[in-house]
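Researcher: Structure for this, please.
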Amino acid sequence: MSIGLIGKKVGMTQVYTEDGNAVAVTVIEVAKNQVVQVKTAENDGYSAVQLGFADKKESRVTRPMLGHFKKASAAPKYVLREFRTAEGEETPAVGSELGAEKFEAGTFVDVIGTTKGRGFTGAMKRWNFSGQPASHGHMMHRRTGSIGCRLTPGRVWKNQKMPGHYGVERATTQNLKVIQSRPEEGVILVKGAVAGHNGAYVLVRPAVKKTQAAK
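Model: Predicted structure, C-alpha cell format:
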C-alpha cells in the first residue's frame, strides 16, 4: 500500500468543469502531514511510515509521547496514523512534511472516515426496514415485527437487526476522483461525499481497486 495522508473534512461545495458541468465535491484539508517515524522490516518487523496531523499543546501530551515527537523534531499532534509501505518503495525522511501535492488532479483515492452519530434509533431508520401497516387500527407502525420462533431455535439469533445505537462507525468511500489539488491552499477537492461531519479527521489513500489511469 502506498503512503496516504491524514486530513480534515472542511465541507462540501461545487466546482465547474471546462465543459460547464457542476460537480459536487468535498473539500479536505491535508496540509502539514509530518513524518514522525519510519518503521523498517529489520527493526520493527514491517515497513511503514507514521504520519502526524494537527498540532496541539505540549501540555496535552504524556511525557512518553512528547519524547516520541521530539525525537522526530515534530510538534505534538492530535492524530497519528501508519501507512504500510512496499519493499523498495521510497520513504520520506523523518520530520519532513507532506501535503496536497501528493495527489494530483485526475487520480483516484479512497477516503476513510467515521460516520455521523445518530444516537439510539429504531429499526426503520437504522436498517431501512419498511415497517408495518400504517392504516387505522394497526398498532405496530414502526416496530420490527417477528424476531424469532417459539420452538426452533427458541431464541433470538445473534446479529439480529434491531433498534440500537446508529452511526459512529468506520466507513470507507472508494474510488473518488480528485477534481482539484491546491497545494498552495493545502486542500484537495474530491468528487462526491465522504463519511463524517465537517471538521472530522479522515484518511486519504491511493485507491486500492482503481488501478486504471484516470480519465
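Researcher: Any notable elements?
Model: The two ends are 22 Å apart (CA to CA). The domain at 5-116+170-206 is CATH 2.40.30.10 (Elongation Factor Tu (Ef-tu); domain 3).
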